[in-house]
Amino acid sequence: MVLATRTRRGFLTGRSPEDLDRILPPGASETSVQNCSGCGACVDACPTKIISIRSGIPAVDFRQGGCTFCGKCAERCPENVFPAGSAGGFAHYAAIGDGCLANNYVDCQACRDCCPAGAIRFRPRLGGPFVPELAAAACTGCGACISVCPADAITMNPRHPEAAHV
């Protein structure tokens, strides 16, 4: 049995290491998920079966597939987890890591082929297969690329809103 290491801050805030990598369903926020009762209606409604309840809160696992932004999770939720007027998008974007097969001279373009937004393109490289380039601004964060990556080289990075200058 492996025990997760808990930080002092995590102990005081009640957050576990598992919570740090949790991705919330589209339209949900850290504030709005506090309204979740853990009923699982969003889990049952998700056609791609990527939502589960972890620690009483809905979480998305892109290893199962990608989000189609159908909104069925929000429609079925009896609580105020998906507030009306919420953008319905994700607060993250995909990032291709060093373990990518194409970056290591193995021909693979699986992520490009499944990206519905066309955010992943491949540019030619002299003496090897094409190299992936991801346009973070075009990425919807749907996660379709994660489930098809044979090298498990794609992760999600949070979008940090730029500070407004007054």
Descriptors:
single chain, 166 residues, alpha+beta, Alpha-Beta Plaits, 2 domains, 6 helices, 6 strands, 18% helix
Explain the overall architecture.
The chain is of the alpha+beta class. It folds into 2 domains: 21-89, Alpha-Beta Plaits; 92-158, Alpha-Beta Plaits. The chain has helices at 8-13, 17-20, 41-45, 72-76, 110-114, 144-148; strands at residues 51-54, 57-60, 92-96, 120-125, 128-134, 154-158. The strands form 3 sheets. A two-stranded antiparallel sheet has the order 1-2. The chain has a two-stranded antiparallel ribbon with strand order 3-6. Strand 4 (120-125) and strand 5 (128-134) form a beta hairpin. It starts with 7 loop residues before the first helix and ends in an 8-residue tail after the last strand. The relative contact order is 0.17. The model is unreliable at 1-7 and 12-20 (pLDDT under 50).
**Helical element count?**
6
CATH architecture of the largest domain: 2-Layer Sandwich
State the major sheet. Answer: 2 strands, antiparallel
- How many DSSP E strands? 6
What's a quick, concise take on this entry?
By secondary structure, this protein is an alpha+beta fold. The protein contains 6 helices and 6 strands.
Write the layout of secondary structure elements.
Elements: H1 8-13, H2 17-20, H3 41-45, E1 51-54, E2 57-60, H4 72-76, E3 92-96, H5 110-114, E4 120-125, E5 128-134, H6 144-148, E6 154-158
